[in-house]
Amino acid sequence: MKGRGRNVTIEGASMLVCPQCASKFGGQPTPSESRLASSPRTRPSWVGGPERPTHTRPRRDSTPKPKPKPRSGVLIDEMELIEDYAKTIRAARQRKHLSQEELAQKIGERISTLQSIEAGRLKPTGKTIRGLERELEISLLEPVGAVPIKVGKGKTGAGPTLGDRVVVKRKKSQKARQEGTQAK
Asked: Is residue 44 part of a domain?
């Protein structure tokens, strides 16, 4: 949007549009926009006194907002879903004597979603993981371990390179494929 947006009413809907669209579609300014446009922003010179804006915004309190406390522990981004999450969820639900329908309702998910999660076809989202952990009193996340990095060949003092991390999969040559099919 170029320029300052304008609040206009077009076909009964109040929208914030660019000045070109406001003039093109000929919408009426919304009540707040028309009131601001009709009132003078500064006092005319003949009224006297220093020119000051007539509409002043209330000043904010100078007291700063309290900063959020740093959280202790591990963040969800630094955690990963356990491998056997489906079995863990099903066993915990059965231990609590809950049906899939009851658990789905408690965590705010659809029954089909919970069934897919328990079958291992669907990985739960962060919100679903927190709900399951809360209702079933289990832990589905584990800290992400550091990935071991192999040191490059013959280079000393330099860190790992992309070539040290990537495994290149090469297609079989056409000759090797023909030999493989003839051997069968």
From this structure: no
Q: Amino acid identity, residue 64?
A: P
Q: How far apart are CA 15 and CA 89, in angstroms?
A: 47
Exposed, middle or buried by CB within 10 Å (0-12, 13-18, 19+), for 136?
Answer: buried
CATH no. for residue 132?
Answer: 1.10.260.40
- Helices 85-95 and 126-136 meet at what angle, rounded to 10? 40
> How confident is the model over 96-122, as a mean pLDDT?
94
Say how many C-beta atoms besides its own lie within 10 A of residue 132's C-beta: 25
Handedness of CA 122, 123, 124, 129 (dihedral sign): positive
| Strand-pair partners of 16 | 7
Domain total in the chain: 2
Q: Is residue 17 part of a domain?
A: yes
Sole residue written with tokens 């079933």: 136
For the chain, the straight-line distance linking the first and the last C-alpha, in angstroms and rounded, comes to 66
Q: Residue 26's domain spans which residues?
A: 6-36
Residue 174: inside a domain: no
pLDDT of residue 50: 57
pLDDT attached to residue 8: 83
